Amino acid sequence: MDHYDEDQDYRHPEDDWDRDLLLDPAWEKQQRKTFTAWCNSHLRKAGTQIENIEEDFRDGLKLMLLLEVISGERLAKPERGKMRVHKISNVNKALNFIASKGVKLVSIGAEETSAKEGLLLWCQRKTAPYKNVNIQNFHISWKDGLGFCALIHRHRPELIDYAKLRKDDPMTNLNTAFDVAEKYLDIPKMLDAEDIVGTARPDEKAIMTYVSSFYHAFSGAQKAETAANRICKVLAVNQENEQLMEDYEKLASDLLEWIRRTIPWLENRMPENTMQAMQQKLEDFRDYRRLHKPPKVQEKCQLEINFNTLQTKLRLSNRPAFMPSEGKMVSDINNAWGGLEGAEKGYEEWLLNEIRRLERLDHLAEKFRQKAAIHEAWTEGKEEMLQRRDYETASLSEIKALLKKHEAFESDLAAHQDRVEQIAAIAQELNELDYYDSPSVNARCQRICDQWDALGALSQKRSEALQRTEKLLETIDQLYLEFAKRAAPFNNWMEGAMEDLQDSFIVHTIEEIQGLSTAHEQFKATLPEADKERQAILGIHNEIAKIVQTYHVNMAGSNPYTTINPQEVNAKWDKVRQLVPLRDQSLIEEHARQQNNERLRRQFANQANVIGPWIQTKMEEIGRISIEMHGTLEDQLTHLRQYEKSIINYKPKIDQLEGDHQLIQAALIFDNKHTNYTMEHIRVGWEQLLTTIARTINEIENQILTRDAKGISQEQLNEFRASFNHFDRDHSGTLGAEEFKACLISLGFDIGNDAQGENEFSRIMSVVDPNRMGVVTFQGFIDFMSRETADTDTADQVMASFKILAGDKNYILADELRRELPPDQAEYCIARMAPYSGPDGVPGALDYMSFSTALYGESDL
């Protein structure tokens, strides 16, 4: 608002000019005419006028009357006598009244220029936006009339179409301004357009007198402008805060919706039947961790920062704290986020367990198929063989042979009992591990067990039949029997060896593969003895052939006691010798893979054992920075931002560790004895580090915002921080209730131990701890101290501003708001102001009082 300090030696132009006009006998005709017209414009209200200035003002009566009309106040009772002493008394009363209003009555000379310069500056500021108007003085700058028109248009644009005025038509411009001023602004026509245009240098005092009338006429508009500016400022703050609230609500809703959609996916524990499908699930989870979650972590951090910034702005503007919609508090977001991370951790553990389970299942299923195939191959034809009735027509020697052969079969049958039990045990384990193809495994296992029971029954039945005929059989070929007895277990040993050499294995450490290698070496050490046994078995067969050849024994067929022949023994032995180097190669490759896994473990551990302590150290350093006071807040903010930059520059090391972690997972490495840090620990620590530095920077920014908005000095902030840190003995960044009370007392607050003191402290706690958490943060402490040490705008001030715009009415009209305020803020007020219900209201009246209190939370908006 344009105004002048009433304590300074300043007078409005007409206050100084009156005395000159009374004492200067050299006035020209135009000056007398101008001043006479001005005086009569006021005296007409009192029902009188003057004709001759010197004569009519000489006795002081009309001068006193003029002052009463202008001021609206009663002067001392005038003297009605005609003596010179009476006239001097009246003039002195008038002069004393003028002096009582703070006007210094001194000689008016070239040195008394403050009022003139003030009026000139006012004219220059008001006409600055208008083209072709350059007010530099109170004579020739007004000759073209555009200056007068610009003053009117600036305050009442509807009265003059300024765009149609021309600088080369001064007569039209001057007459337009004089006529409009007299008709609409109640300013008498003190000047003559022809005199101004026809004079090379118009009279300066006459121009100043007339312009001062505009100044007084528009002083009310100036107050309205100031009031409008105050309201605009308050409304701008409110609109900005509402936008921040809407942004918070949207960001919170989006984040909660993403969490709501993501948690069911993480809680889905529907297993896949194949390793490939589960590996795809693991890859999808890695993409989620690497691509989808990090932006949401940033959004969550930004949400907390926005919430804290909004609350700080609301506190600084004396607005009530922002309460988000139900379920959208920062604590709600944190709870939902905790649920997300819990589901995430459980999902990852489940994925790894499922992969281990499927790996174990594939291994067991392959082992089941191998053993089942070997057993089925062995049992092929056995039932048919046991059901033969060849003993009924056989000779005694043939019966003996059949009996011995059956004994060898039973020995073989007993040797296969262990394999059948292994097959059943593997099938049982596959069922317990929920193998997807359990029905076919169970069916096959059941067929093997049923067949095994049948073989046992048939074997028992045939044995009994042969024993019944044993007495009829006297001769048996011992050599064939010995061959069969020794060949059967050797054959079984070779089959077991081939089984073991082809058996798949799964290990996770170098120690385990070394154990397998050691066992394999021990097996290879038994091969020479096995070869001796093979040679001995083949020697029995050779001896039989020699006996047959020597004694010309008529052999009706092959060995009657066994189906194993030397060719089969040699073939299986050759197969065993071929499988040994293949097994060697498999163990070597697995040993190399385990060495690579160990390298990956050490590579990951070397980095993790550096990064983990680094993150912890940075967390502790940030905690110390937030507590210590080194330099100004701007210095601390600069230090923290540099610190944040150094932390962000560390991100490639985290990414490198993530890459090593992915290699470890791809290699299915599930443990690492070289470090206690997991990638999950590093991720959580890194996210907490980024969040902590961002929160600390935001806290310093809010302190700067509080300091600048509340006018708090750096020394005061340092004092507040020192007191807070002194009582924050556990360095938690918060104070308990008793610690906070002691801190306030140390800063000079008088909080007694009586009931009144407790009530006052309870009130303070409700301000600094609105959520009743039982602790006070440093930001809450600073906000409280700011309110205690700084001035702020109030609802009463806003109501006073609206009252000015309304012309002292208890209500305001929409047209008045649109005239005085910018369009968007005017419509903002109109949309939110309740109708005025007072007895002095008119149609369309709006209640600006309830609107003002609602802005500060003192009523509902």
Automatic annotation (TrEMBL):
A Pfam family the protein falls into: Spectrin
Keywords attached to this entry: Actin-binding, Calcium, Coiled coil, Cytoplasm, Metal-binding, Repeat
Keyword Lipid biosynthesis: no
Gene3D superfamilies the UniProt entry points to: 1.20.58.60, Calponin-like domain, EF-hand
A single GO cellular-component term on record: cytoplasm
Coiled-coil parts of chain: 234-261, 399-433
Domain Calponin-homology (CH) residue range list: 29-112, 113-219
GO molecular function, one term: calcium ion binding
EF-hand domain boundaries: 715-750
InterPro entries given in the database record: Actinin_actin-bd_CS, CH_dom, CH_dom_sf, EF-hand-dom_pair, EF-hand_Ca_insen, EF_Hand_1_Ca_BS, EF_hand_dom, Spectrin/alpha-actinin
PROSITE patterns on file: ACTININ_1, CH, EF_HAND_1, EF_HAND_2
Subcellular localization: Cytoplasm
Family: Belongs to the alpha-actinin family.
Protein name, per record: Actinin, alpha 1
Phylogenetic classification of the source organism: Eukaryota, Metazoa, Chordata, Craniata, Vertebrata
